[in-house]
Every structure is written in structure tokens, then in C-alpha cells.
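pinging the channel bc i need a second pair of eyes. not urgent but kinda urgent?? the chain im working w is below, pasted from the shared doc
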Amino acid sequence: MSLAPRAVLVHRTTEYEELLARHGTHGQAAFFLASRGRSLDEVAERHHRTRRALAEVAAAVPLQWRQSRVERADLDRFLFAPEDVVVVVGQDGLVANTAKYLSGQPVVGIDTDPGRNPGVLVRHRPSDAGALLPCAATARADELTMVEAVADDTQRLLALNEIYLGPPGHQTARYRLGPDDPAAAPEPQASSGLLVGTGTGATGWLRSLWQQRGSRLALPGPADPRLIWFVREAWPSPTTGTSQVEGVLESAERLRLTVESDRLVAFGDGIESDALELTWGQTVSVGRSGTALRLVG
């Protein structure tokens, strides 16, 4: 007998809750903001709007389904099951934060603050949940391309937007970079790191790099199998080059990076706390993941 689906409601701590955790009471938080010319009212209203949305979505879960909740900070410790329907209640970035922990489960993005969020990934309103959830497993879904990094010690990292590889601080990263092909000669480089990302990521950090350098590369779309990559601030010297600083990876192509620093990290979608640790001599291969995000349209 198969299990009933489980609705997993993903949410994050609100700014109001963070202020209360820091200052203890509503009054103390209000005083703190007032001393800086700010009001707590707007922050509190966004909090109440988010909580109302979460309650409305929870009430819309079919009665025969199981239900669970997970806060963003606990995602790396939460075990998603194949039969889950994942309901992200919050901002676009929360969908990206969740995507790396999934393996093909359908995702429904619920926008708690329409007009404030772009709504690229959180496409629905809380009032839509009642009609969406019962058919989420079979509904039309966009298969959004994801990027992965795989280290030679089997560490693996997934991301929906982009993967950053570079120094954990403001030092210079030293490495060799080239195609993941033994016949291709890698280029020694010194830089502040590189980004490899998807069409979804091309609306954020990647796009800012693309614009800053006036790149003529065509940015991919969210469901495009191509990836795009940029090296940040590559430094030319007698021993390091700058000839391979941007490019496009077709669906089966990958980049290969060999570490020549004491410590580099790789993290996805801005989550530095969940990073791969890389050290001298290690290699990491970066390319399109076989896993895609199933985002219910």
C-alpha cells in the first residue's frame, strides 16, 4: 500500500522574528529601529502577512495527506522523500535554497509578498494552494536546469542559480582551469574565483558579471541545458594567464579546476555555510546536473 503524499512547507525566519531574537521584546526592537530613524511597523506587517500565508497554505493541504514544515536553516538536515510535494512559502531565493536538497520532487512556489518579490520562482498566491496541491504531482512543471560540482573525493554540490569556486575570504585563489578533458591543457590562473551558473542564475549574480564586463555571450534561459561561466578579476603575471575567463558549457561539457592554494571552497546559491572544502592538488568538475528542479507552473 503506497503512502499518501506529504506536503513539505518550506519557510524562513522573518526579519521581525530575527529582531525579536536579538532584542527580546517588540518594544525593545521598536526602540532599536526608532533610534535609527526606522519603524518596526512595516517589518511587523510583513511578518504577519507571511504567517497568514503559511497558515492559509497549511489549511489547503488535502486532509488525507501528511504534512511537515522545515525552516531554511534546517534544510541541510531534513530528509525529503520521493513522494513529497514541496511547497515553498516565501521569496524566490528560498526556492533556490531548497532546490539543492531535492531529487525531482514537484515544487510549488507561493509568493507571500506580491509586488515586493519578483515572482520568478514563487509564481502563485496562497489562495491558489487549494487547487494546486491535489494535482501538483501530475501538473505541468518547468524542468529548470541545475549545475553541479563534483570533487575527486566524491563530494558533490548542487545549485539552481550558480556555483562559486574560490577563496573563502579576500585572498587570491590559485588553480588550473580548463575543459574536463585530459587532452586539453589547463591554464594556471590567479583570481578572486569563478562562477558557473544556469539560466535561472542569469537573472542575478551572473548577469551582473555579464553586464560589468560587456560580455557578448548569449545568456541561457532557465530550462536551457547550457551553462555560462565567468572568472572574476583574473590576474595576468609571468606564471598565470587570462585567456580563459568566460565561456558557455553545452549540455555535456564540463570545466575542470585543479586547486593550487591551501584552501578553496565551492558553494551554491550563496549558501556559504554548506560548502565543499578543497585543498592543494584536489580537482573538481563542474557542469550541468542530471537533476532538474520541477517547478509547477
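so The mean pLDDT is 93. and The CA atoms of residues 111 and 122 lie 5 Å apart. — does that match what u expected or am i reading it wrong
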